[in-house]
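Thread: quick sanity check before group meeting

JM: Hey all, I'm pulling together slides for Thursday and realized we never actually wrote out the predicted structure for the chain we discussed last week. Dropping the sequence here so it's in one place. If anyone has concerns about the input, flag it before I start.
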Amino acid sequence: MAHSAEQAADEQRILIHTDSRYAAYTIDLDYMWRWEILRDGEFVQEGCSLSQNSAREAVAHVLNFFRRQDEAAGTPGDNSEEIKRLLRALGTPEPIADKNDTTKNELAQPE
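JM (edit): ok, ran it. Output follows.
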């Protein structure tokens, strides 16, 4: 019986986005619209919205975030120096390193 319930749910799913990597579906539950996003066929995110249009908008926001992550992951090297620069600019204290380059629990005050 659970198998037929899953089939019925799959038949009610509405495709609201698809591209080479992501697919998003929504289903009307009468009191809300449940949506889910798949990356390369694997579930990655779900949410709910009050209307189908707001579900599309929410999915678009989440996909924009995922795409930025994908772009950053595809960049050679890491962004640690840029992150450190931004943290310094914000005035975030830095850990004090001892002579062996190990981090202590004390924090240095920014200059």
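AS: nice. The CA atoms of residues 24 and 37 lie 4 Å apart. The chain has a mean pLDDT of 81.
JM: adding both to the slides.
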